[in-house]
Each structure stands twice: as structure tokens, then as C-alpha cells.
Amino acid sequence: MAHFYLNELVGTAEVGSRVSIDGPEARHAVTVSRLAVGESVSIGNGRGLVATGSIVTAEHTELAIEVEAVTSVPRTEPAIFLAQALAKGDRDELAVQAATELGIDGVIPWTAARSISRWEGAKIAKGHDRWSAIVREATKQSIRAWLPDVLDLATTNQLARLAPEVRMLVLEPTAELALSALEPDDRDIVLVVGPEGGIAPNELAALTAAGATLVRLGDTVLRTSTAGPAAIAVLNAKLGRW
């Protein structure tokens, strides 16, 4: 299995230069993955740059490579963002992890009316940090050149204000339009997924009034942890990403 790590502080890299990781990232690589001098590793900066080379330093405090190849991956357009409603247990986290592996460009934590889980007070920063960590680990696991953004916690009103600026698609089992029948255009996409109890009628009304489109995946109802990833897979095919 290829080894891929992130160092967001890397600005540029060229063949023959050295690129490194440090701190917990290096400690994990050396003590857990047991990487050693001479093995090949890739290090990305999360903004499209990926440097690959052989390890020349393998210490608990630093792992460095001598760069043998540099790849620059452009950001995919149009972008796809997942507005994932907060959900109980780890269902929202499972959705965020899978969405990252499937190529999402950013995630928006959403406090929906029927969300059982709530981020309030100190939980807002804690929840954001948790989602950011999940996105980072999933990015490394899937060897992605771009690290998805984790945006601020949003209310339904804030999502509605965003709708005119993007192509907002709201997953709703009763919608007439199938996601697979949607014709893509060049607008960035915001995919809205509700919590366990679904999206409340007044929220659907507010989002559609702002310009969002209701779409369905099929005749069955998926869990909040799987609906978003399933829809992203459809969009990947429609947009030619796959």
C-alpha cells in the first residue's frame, strides 16, 4: 500500500529537494507504519502539490524524503460540497469520511431542525475540529492531492442565503426529479442531506424558495450516513470525474 502524508506548510518542491513531515505525523509514520530509510513515500500539501521520493531521514521527530517526482493536480471544477446535517452517534462522521474518500471538495456542518445532535458553545469548535481530523485522515487514506475544506456550522437560513450562488441540490425521497436525470452545468454544487428524521417541511420550503432543487436517489430511503456518499457517487459519474 502506498504511504501518503500531509504537510500543509509545504509551498513548493522540486526534484532533488527535501520535503519532510514532523510532529505526530512523523511519529506515526516511523513507530506505527514502521517506515525506514530507502522506502518511497509521497507528501502532499493539501492544495494539489504531491512530492514523491525515497526516505532519507526516519526519526520520531522528522521523516524526510529526497524528491524524485513532483505532481501538481488542479482543483476539480465544478466543486461539490456536502451540507451534512448533524446526526446522532457517528452517522454524520461516517458520511463525512466516505464523502472525503469519494472526492468531496468541502463539507458544511448543518444544524437542521430535526437534528438530535447539537453543536452549542464549546461543542462548536470541538465538533469542527473533529470533522477536520476525519477529513484529513480520509484524505491521506484515499491519497487525495486536495484537502477538502470544513466550513463553519450553518443554520438553515444560512444555507438558504447560499442557494442563489451555487447549484443547491436537496436530497428528498419524495422529489419528482431523480438525481441521475440531472444535467450538470458549470456551477459549484452544494448537496444537502438531512438528519435521521428527514428535512422539515418548512426547511424544504425555505431552501426551494431560495433556488434549491429537490432531488431523489431512488425509491428507497437511505440513512443520513449513506445518502450523501451515494449521491456523490452519482454526481461523480454525471460530471465525468469517474
Automatic annotation (TrEMBL):
Keyword Magnesium in annotation: no
Top EC class, one word: transferase
Source organism: Conyzicola nivalis
UniProt feature coiled coil, ranges: none
Keyword vocabulary terms for this entry: Cytoplasm, Methyltransferase, rRNA processing, S-adenosyl-L-methionine, Transferase
Domain Ribosomal RNA small subunit methyltransferase E PUA-like span(s) in chain numbering: 21-67
Its EC number(s): 2.1.1.193
UniProt keyword S-adenosyl-L-methionine present: yes
Pfam name, any one: Methyltrans_RNA
Family annotation (InterPro entries): Alpha/beta_knot_MTases (IPR029028), PUA-like_sf (IPR015947), RsmE (IPR006700), RsmE_MTase_dom (IPR046886), RsmE_PUA-like (IPR046887), tRNA_m1G_MTases_N (IPR029026)
GO molecular function, one term: methyltransferase activity
Catalyzed chemical reaction(s): uridine(1498) in 16S rRNA + S-adenosyl-L-methionine = N(3)-methyluridine(1498) in 16S rRNA + S-adenosyl-L-homocysteine + H(+)
Primary localisation category: cytoplasm
GO biological-process terms attached to the record: methylation
CDD domains, alphabetized: RsmE-like
All copies of domain Ribosomal RNA small subunit methyltransferase E methyltransferase, residue ranges: 78-235
Function, in words: Specifically methylates the N3 position of the uracil ring of uridine 1498 (m3U1498) in 16S rRNA. Acts on the fully assembled 30S ribosomal subunit.
Localization, UniProt: Cytoplasm
Gene3D superfamilies (UniProt xref): 3.40.1280.10, Hypothetical PUA domain-like, domain 1 (2.40.240.20)
Membership in a protein family: Belongs to the RNA methyltransferase RsmE family.
Protein's name according to its UniProt entry: Ribosomal RNA small subunit methyltransferase E
